[in-house]
Design brief:
alpha+beta; 7-stranded antiparallel sheet; single chain
């Protein structure tokens, strides 16, 4: 019997027909598959966003306060650790496990609705490395010996993108190490001005017992929020003679810039030259210390003269969610406070002002900065000066009292225009601060009042608001738009006498005395910078605590 079979021509025709059918149906099939994948991705994202929404509702005050158009970041790891998401949840954007840097970005719109987006947040080191180019001779450069070490060198025009808002302070990135994932920072502003020691240190133990080391590692370090303190790494600081800075080394949480670091950054042609005097970690001789002048030169002076203090810390790498690294828009990870209880030292607060004297601008909001905290209140200092200057007293033979001219002429009128629901009384250090004295001495004698002046050794009792123009250029360490009445005076009173009939002020007028305390006759008119105590449990209605966007009291 004859067996039927396809001829070769018939087989080819069938194959061609099948190919035509596949070609015709493939796009549709692909669309079905793609549509299914997109649907699955959308469903997976919705699951994540729903978890983020539930977590947000349970922790609303942690992320949002009552201002519109704000943004919050919730880490996926927080959703997993708090059982809002399964631990095996896969990132639908890349079909891989979530990393510690994946977040849900939540934007609250003006109509009260929320927008959810899954994002990857970069670390500060990852962000800074984008600035590096092998051809760089200024800006971010790589160390010639340690290939893991990057540092900044050059002027403020060449280094304008290494500002970091962190822990209530404005910092500049000095360097970072990609191997140990650490970042070394220096405060952008002088945070105080004190005598460094009673004599020049020539040994490690002498430095470690100095006034400045105690201020840095006791007063300053302990003022920081615990999340910041826990992220600071022990660091080796070179505190030897300026010709051999590592002649003496010390391991501390907080230290000072050494001379080699300053020179590496470009000396007086560097971003570290802020037009203000600040001390270095090194001595010139057995009787004098090294410091940077207000025009950026390195000079030496006796240890018993005060200099501005710029703390240096090393931290583990951190994630960044905002900013471009400029002074006005610094890198930061938003970590907002909701009330005066959990505000951080260094953050800015707007307090309503009822006066018509334009003391705090047309917005009638006085911007204060947090000096310190206790269980009952927070101490804050005006971020600027009042429009009226005043003499200190008619007689400075005794410590300051509330009957002195600085009170009766200015302070009493100022505090009368702040609602009593915000303020409480507190202690102000009025002790004498003599040459070479310890910064703690002015706190030994106090008065209790509802308003006062900065006390020597306190946070922000240095020239952090000084806008006086130095000999060779303008100040670079503050945004003038954030200062109350920046041109009224280049100096301001403290609460403390220098000796009989002389009062200590933060003298910033002459270029020779920029950045350290000087004494002035009590009868001279000088700037007034009020300090007050705000009550605890005061809520904020907006802001994020920075100079450009302070918290606002309800």
């Amino acid at each position: 019997m004859k067996k039927n079979a396809f001829t070769l021509v018939e087989l080819i025709a069938v194959i061609v027909l099948l190919c035509i059918i596949v070609l015709i149906s493939f796009p549709a099939l692909t669309n079905v598959i793609k549509g299914g994948e997109e649907k699955n991705k959308e469903e997976a994202l919705n699951t994540i966003y729903m978890a983020a929404e539930n977590y947000l509702m349970a922790n609303y005050e942690k992320y949002f306060i009552n201002n519109t158009g704000d943004t919050a970041y919730i880490y996926i790891t927080d959703l997993i650790n708090n059982n809002y998401l399964n631990a095996d949840t896969i990132n639908p954007n890349n079909d891989s496990s979530f990393s510690s840097k994946d977040v849900v970005k939540i934007t609250r719109n003006e109509d009260g609705t929320f927008k959810y987006e899954l994002e990857y947040v970069k670390t500060l080191i990852e962000t800074l490395l984008e600035q590096y180019n092998e051809s760089n001779t200024t800006g971010l450069v790589k160390d010639s010996i340690n290939s893991n070490l990057y540092y900044y060198t050059g002027t403020n025009e060449e280094v304008s993108n290494n500002f970091l808002w962190y822990g209530g302070h404005q910092w500049r990135v000095l360097e970072f190490d990609t191997n140990e994932n650490s970042i070394t920072l220096i405060s952008q502003q002088p945070l105080t001005a004190i005598y460094s020691a009673n004599s020049v240190w020539t040994t490690q133990s002498a430095y470690e017992s100095s006034y400045i080391n105690t201020w840095l590692n006791d007063y300053f370090y302990n003022s920081l929020d615990s999340t910041i303190k826990n992220n600071i790494i022990d660091n080796t600081f070179n505190v030897g003679i300026y010709t051999d800075v590592d002649e003496i080394i010390t391991k501390q949480k907080v230290g000072l810039l050494d001379e080699e670091q300053y020179k590496r950054a470009g000396s007086n042609e560097s971003y570290l030259n802020i037009g203000n005097i600040f001390g270095l970690a090194n001595r010139e001789s057995s009787s004098s210390m090294r410091f940077v002048s207000n025009i950026g030169n390195i000079l030496n002076d006796v240890v018993s003269l005060s200099h501005g203090i710029r703390p240096v810390i090393k931290i583990s790498d951190i994630t960044i969610t905002e900013g471009n690294g400029s002074l006005e828009n610094s890198y930061c990870y938003k970590n907002k406070s909701t009330n005066t209880n959990n505000v951080q030292v260094g953050e800015y607060i707007n307090v309503p002002y009822n006066g018509s004297d334009n003391a705090c601008g047309s917005d009638n909001m006085c911007t204060f900065r947090v000096i310190s905290k206790n269980n009952d209140s927070i101490k804050v200092v005006l971020n600027g000066l009042l429009p009226k200057k005043s003499a200190w007293a008619t007689d400075a033979s005794d410590n300051i009292t509330t009957s002195d001219l600085v009170y009766t002429n200015v302070l009493n009128g100022f505090i009368a225009n702040i609602d009593s629901k915000y303020i409480t009384t507190g202690k102000y250090g009025v002790g004498m601060y003599s040459i070479g004295g310890n910064y703690t001495v002015p706190q030994n004698t106090t008065i209790t009042a509802n308003v006062g002046l900065p006390t020597v050794g306190e946070m922000f009792s240095g020239n952090d608001i000084n806008m006086a123009v130095p000999k060779d250029g303008a100040k670079t360490f503050v945004d003038v738009n954030t200062i109350e009445n920046p041109t009224v005076s280049s100096d301001y009173w403290t609460m403390n006498r220098y000796r009989m009939n002389y009062v200590l002020g933060n003298a910033a007028g002459g270029w020779l005395v920029d950045g350290y305390y000087d004494f002035m006759n009590y009868s001279l008119a000088s700037g007034i910078r009020p300090t007050i105590y705000l009550k605890n449990n005061l809520s904020f209605t907006g802001g994020n605590g920075t100079a450009q966007n302070p918290y606002t009291l309800n």
